Structures are given as structure tokens and as C-alpha cells.
Amino acid sequence: MAEVKKISLKYVVLAFVIAVAFILLLSVDQRVNQPPEEELIAVEEQLGISIDPVTTKEIYEVQDGDNLSIILEDFEIPFNTIFKIIRKDTNQSVRNIRPGDKVVFSYNANTVNTIEIIKDSQEVLLISIADEITIQQVQKTIDLIPTSNFGMVESSFYRAAMDANIPDSIIMDFAYIFGWDVDFVFDVRKGDQFWVSYETEYIDGDQVSNGDIAFAAFLNQGKLYIAQRFIDENQGKQYFDDQGNNVRKAFLRAPLDFAYISSHFNPNRMHPILHKIKAHNGVDYAAKRNTPVMASGDGVISFAGWKSGYGKTLEIRHGGDITTLYAHLENFEKNIKQGSKVSQGDLIAFVGDSGLATAPHLHYEFRVGKKRTDPVKVKLPNAQSISSNQKAEFLLEVETNLQAALAQMPNLALSDRFSDL
Length: 421
Fold this sequence. Notes:
3 domains, alpha+beta, Glucose Permease (Domain IIA), Nuclear Transport Factor 2, Chain: A, six-stranded antiparallel sheet, about 425 residues, 21 strands, ten-stranded antiparallel sheet
């Protein structure tokens, strides 16, 4: 009997050890699988530190007609905080925002702790959000980061530029700069080459602009177009070709981007709805509904309303007895009305199919006096050339940038025009 009792005691001890080990394993497993938040609290308690939430930023560029209070509301700044900021802004330096200013919101987790209003490299207003609102003017340097890209067209300019990693805003600026001479859908061919150098603004490592083109070259159907940015003493920032001629014309070649011509100027066209010969005294640009329409030149709105088969129509009176007409519109831009002054490139309306139209498109006419002319073929006058006393400085900049373009544009190097560079 004694022998049996001895064996039983061994099993009891073994079972106890196994039970204790199992409990310890469960305890470790529970600690390993604790929720992350509890782990952070435990770490903070053990180390005696607090782990700060992630800091993030949002940047907004002020547009024409913007109001600071509305901007702050859109970014979910509490009304009480907005009131404190406005009350603290005794000299209205914060409220006096202009198009192009940047408003930078810095967050800790979901809470705004600072707002910066960047006017230029010399004027940055810092608003600290706490129990007591403070506003101070600080100086921050804007770093200009230069970038250059080269591309060759296979199917479309836009696709080639995207493939070359060019930002969308730079693509649009490029098309706008050369838009007086080139229709970027109708005129572009496979094998065309382009090179662009642009600068992007950064403050404290954060991008605050989409970039500004410094130099651009476009080899289109064997013809070279060049645009050099230069600060002209009389005109401010302008773009000029390699001879100092302003690339800007008095009128845009086309009043909208990246559309295609669905119907050309034709005095003997068969009307698609009326089914009779009726002169087509302009150009039709097929585009999606609500595509933005721009004023092709400086002028005054002489008509804004409904005009029979044209539907919703705008007419602009320009200098030199020139008038442009924009028809079949969906809507006018909200501030556009008869008597409004507009500048070249201003948003004036949106593409639609009002009036006698089979699909959304823009009907565009160019008239000199009472004579209607083909907008695609009319010779457009240039804007003012570069100041004569700045031309030597300008030509030096052009030569430097052309050397960089030549290194990446093989077809350009074959041109007799630049073979001696």
C-alpha cells in the first residue's frame, strides 16, 4: 500500500506543475493580445512619458472672392475660435487675404493648433490656437525647387506629359502658354517633343505651390516654339520666344482646353437640325458638358443672354473692332453679365447644348467689324515685345536654357537654327 501512495503523490505534483504552467501561458497570451491603446497607456506609465499624436497639415490657396471666415468654417474651425481670431486681428492683416495667398492648417490629431497665412516670402502670419489666440508676423524663406522633364508624343500631348511625370497644373500652364499658336488636340502629332523647366515653392519642407514654368520648348510638326519666363520692367512677368517676342497674342487660338473641332468654319454647311444649307460662321469645339470656357481676349461683355438657335450666348467686344461670340452654353460664370470687363483667360461660361445643338459643344465666332472670319486661320497679333534695354540679359537666359533643352531633345539638336549653339 505504501508503494501505491508514493506513485500517486508523484502524479499529483506533476499535475500541479502542468496547471501552473498553463495558467502562466494564459497570462502571457492575454498581455500580448491587449488592445494597442492599452499598450500605449502601459508604456507611457512605465516610461513616464507621453506619446504625442501625429502632426498633419492641410494647405488651401485663396481664390478670387474668398472670405477668411468662410475658409475657416470650411476647415471646421469652431465658430468661437473664428470670433477670437477676428477680434484679435485689430489691424485686419489676417482678414486682408488676396488670391494666391496660402492658408496652412497644422493639426495635432484632429485639433488645429496653428494657422499660417503665407502672403510671400517676406510676410507670413502665424496664428496660434490656444486658450489665448496670438497673431504674429514671422519671416520664412520660400525654397524654389527646380525640376525639368522631357517627353515625346505617342498618342496625345496630355498623355505624354502625364507619362513624363509632369504635374497636371504644369501641363495646363504649358498648353496655355503655347495656346496662341498651337491647338493641343488638333495640331499635335506623334513624334512631337517637349521640354519644360519649372519651379515649385516649399516652406519648411512643405509644398505651397504647384510650380511656375521658367522655360518651355515644344517641337511641333518640325516647328520649334520657345517660351522663356522673364520679368519685363513694363509688363511684369511675361513669356517670350528666343527673339524676345511675346508669345502671348491678343487672342487665344481656342477658348477652352483639350477639346476637338467637330465642325469647321464653312459658309456652305448643311445644318444638322434644320437640314438646309446654312452658313457655319464659326468653329464648333466638342467638349463635355460644363467644360470651362475662357475669354479669348481682353474686352467687355456686350451681350449675355438667349439668342435664338445659339441658345445661351455671350459676346465680347474687343479693341480693333473685333467681337467674339460663345454659344450653346450651359451657364454663365456667376459674375458675368452685360457690361462686365474681362481679361484674356478669364472663366466666362461652361459648355452646354442650349439652342439648336445635337450634343454639348462650344460654338465660337471671331468677327472683325461685320465680317466673320475663321478663328483657326485668322492671324492673331502679338502682345508687346520685351523691353529693348533688357534684351541682352534676356538672350543670355534663353541661351542657357536652350543648352539644357538641347541635351534632352535629340530632334531639336538636328535643327539648323540651333546647330551652332
